[in-house]
Amino acid sequence: MSSELSDHRADIFGPIRSRNVFEEALERVAHAIKTGLYAPGEHLPSERDLAARLEVSRPTVRAVFTALEEAGYVTLRRGRTGGAYVLDRADRSSDAAARKVASAMGAGLLDALDLRWAVEPAIAELAARRSDGEGVGELARLQELCSAASGRAYRPADMLLHTELAALAQSPSLALAARDIQVRLTDMFNATPVIEDVLRHSDRQHEAILDAVRRGDAVAARKTMEEHLAASHAFLEAFLSVP
């Protein structure tokens, strides 16, 4: 292995400092495969090694490998020579679908993501300041609906939750912007793989947002929404990074 390649591998697998460790780890390993840092047939670092490099738990790395196997990037082998191996002919259908949608959206994708960064944390903050008991109860019901959903049924439930949160902010303009964002990003999210670990992490973040809104903690509501968006964007990056 060339020293240059080794240096690139060391750079991409440095410690993760964000709180969205699963999505960040997924994005990094997917990027390493797509950019050719690990060639078809090559063995990725072991669970133990990668967990140490990224400074995350082994179950997190195991979940990343499982997600990449589901998406068609690696095959997982057991036994003495087991581990995650980059597929010779990876099934990139999900990746291709996401890229096709992103290409069709053009600059509109970045615009929608920028708008989301600007709007949704403000919505969460205002919802914590302005929501009443009835509104929080409805938000809790929708959060439970999300938690019970899996696969492709998750996205509609997620949209309802975010739309209700926008209503609690009691700002018609922000609510309209939030609905616009959800509509514009729906095709993008529908084109990416459904990974249950990602959905369940999203549930935990929804719970944190709900808890902050229920307590009227505007600072925590904004912060947890920002973390939620960072996780969502890291997930998209995993399937839109340079091939």
What features would you describe in this structure?
This protein has 243 residues and is mainly alpha-helical. It has eleven helices and two strands. The protein folds into two domains: 3-86, Winged helix-like DNA-binding domain superfamily/Winged helix DNA-binding domain (Arc Repressor Mutant, subunit A, Orthogonal Bundle); 94-240, GntR ligand-binding domain-like (Four Helix Bundle (Hemerythrin (Met), subunit A), Up-down Bundle), CATH 1.20.120. The protein has a two-stranded antiparallel sheet. α3 crosses α4, α6 (107-130) crosses α8 and α6 (107-130) runs parallel beside α10. It is elongated and about 60 Å long.
Give a quick set of tags describing it.
single chain, 243 residues, mainly alpha, Arc Repressor Mutant, subunit A, Four Helix Bundle (Hemerythrin (Met), subunit A), 2 domains, two-stranded antiparallel ribbon, 11 helices, 2 strands, 72% helix
